[in-house]
Amino acid sequence: MMFQTRIEEIGERSLLAAKEYLLQGECVAFPTETVYGLGADARSDAAVANIYAVKGRPQDNPLIVHVHSGYDLNELVYDDKPYAKKLREAFLPGPLTLVYRSRGTVSKKVSCGLDTLAVRVPSHEGAQRFLRAVGIPVAAPSANRSKHVSPVTAGHVYDDLYGKIPLILDGGPCSGGIESTVCDVTGDRPVVLRAGLISREMIESVAGSCDMYVLKEGEPARSPGMKYKHYAPACKTKLFAPEELGKAKEEFFALQSGGTRVLVLCEGSAAAAFPQEAVLCLGNTPAEMAENLYSLLREAETRAEVLLAVEPVGRGGVMTGVLNRLRKACAEG
Questions:
Q1: 44, 275, 314, 324: which one has the fewest Cβ atoms less than 10 Å from its Cβ?
Q2: pTM of full prediction above 0.70
Q3: What reaction(s) does this enzyme catalyze (predicted)?
């Protein structure tokens, strides 16, 4: 079905329309503090299948269920780990998704048949208004074409999904910039499945310990973002390590002299190596780099044939998530 996709500010009328669309099995885009989400009724097989169809998303890539801050988690999951409660108290509402043992009350398509369920309570005021208005668990990945750069404005969603969804709730630019941290809380201690704005170190400070999971060959994905190329702009990309700044500079001038439209994505300390007009500056702090990454990748695809990206120097903390997204954006395939 083709829609005349509308962007509307969040208000009584748009929230009523959003609820009606969701109960009819359609998808609605909504803002969060990280990226815009593509939401549908998590209880409905057909509605969840519609998410995969709208995005062109692989069927083995699980989704996250979003609920408002007053929602009773016991309706969705078994919550039997004391450290999970501590994590919720410390970080929720916020950019942390927790993976629990599922009670099976939502569609099995949400978790791709796994017996776990990823649940998130976003802190964005508009997301909370939306989730309270609809009153149901909402399954939602990022509101973009599969593998493309995640959307951090309503306009980004419109560019990717016009005609495929009826409504985009406009909550302004997202402040966080990269997707939530996903943390498995089914075991004796937490395990980070996807890095994000809540770092492993932050989780350890509350839970006492925390592991990082690495997907093994042939294993099903336990979290979004663990498989496949993601976050990629529609231009050629090449990634350089921090110590390869000189090589990036040589390649930049070689491409430019050959008439190629080329831009460089880098942190502030590396920007002086290139002409100012050719630099897309990520910023100088981890928070700035997380917030700016996706909007700059979107800008690159409108201005350049080739994007040369130089990894920031920093490691650990929020930078783990930033580097994860940057590397996936520039990966082959």
A1: 275
A2: yes
A3: L-threonine + hydrogencarbonate + ATP = L-threonylcarbamoyladenylate + diphosphate + H2O
